[in-house]
TrEMBL record:
SUPFAM superfamilies: Glyoxalase/Bleomycin resistance protein/Dihydroxybiphenyl dioxygenase (SSF54593). It comes from the Bacteria. This is Glyoxalase superfamily enzyme, possibly 3-demethylubiquinone-9 3-methyltransferase. Residues 4-113, 123-248 form the PhnB-like domain. It comes from Chryseobacterium taihuense. The lineage of its organism: Bacteria, Pseudomonadati, Bacteroidota, Flavobacteriia, Flavobacteriales.
Amino acid sequence: MNNNIFPCLWYDGDAKESADFYCTVFSGKITADTPMVVNIEIFGQKLMLLNGGPHFTKNASVSFMVICETEDEVQKYWDHLTDGGIVLMELGEYPWSKKYGWVRDKFGVTWQVYLSENNDLEQKIIPTLMFIHQKNGKAMKAMEFYTNIFPDSKIGSILKYGDGIGNETHEIPENIQHAHFEINGYSFFCMDNSYDHQFDFNEGISMVVMTDNQEQTDHYWNNLITNGGRESMCGWLKDQFGFSWQIVPKRLIELMNDSDQEKAHKVVISMMKMRKIIIQDLENAYNS
């Protein structure tokens, strides 16, 4: 499992409460606990929970597919996640799964709980990107874009609406109903959807990419913002599809966690002024 890539969920003060909840639901553990950032590990996968304030809310444009091996497992997660949540698709039998349901939990995170017949993926929780509004029909383009930028990447199975599994909708036959791709060994699913949802990609759910050096940082940053992406602050950016990424050098985390509080604070102040993270400038601030 590649834990250099992982999701970041945005909260307004309740990250710790949410972390405790997910660790209970999925038998996970908290690996870092600070007022701003809580990291958890579930099924060997890292998730970052960020207390960023009221600016962004999570929505179903990015949901998390939970791959289950038994009906009991599906039921167990479903019972927890629906507690205080909102059911988006009832738990039941569908053309693609004997037991499946879609729910928005009480913290605003959306989960698809799925009984898999023949799962050859070792990753248990898989972020699922929904391409909607003016991005509907661009899931294939996005998969090609991402897999060209990251090493150890591939496009896996693709099911188009025209392939006829449970498509009683008005979707374009060429568009993607469900597809799998990997970047740097980390699995994603994606889909096109023509429904006029009242949400879209935002900073509420982003992907963090941890980098080893400036060369890697530059590569991901410079490529992800091509063709209409946008730089944001503190290592954040939006790609051409409006999806948010954080490109974070591992050295930044080391310096910010330094035992010398004053030096660590200087690093944070320096980082807050940056768009793309420049490691040498962080080192300079640390040594100033």
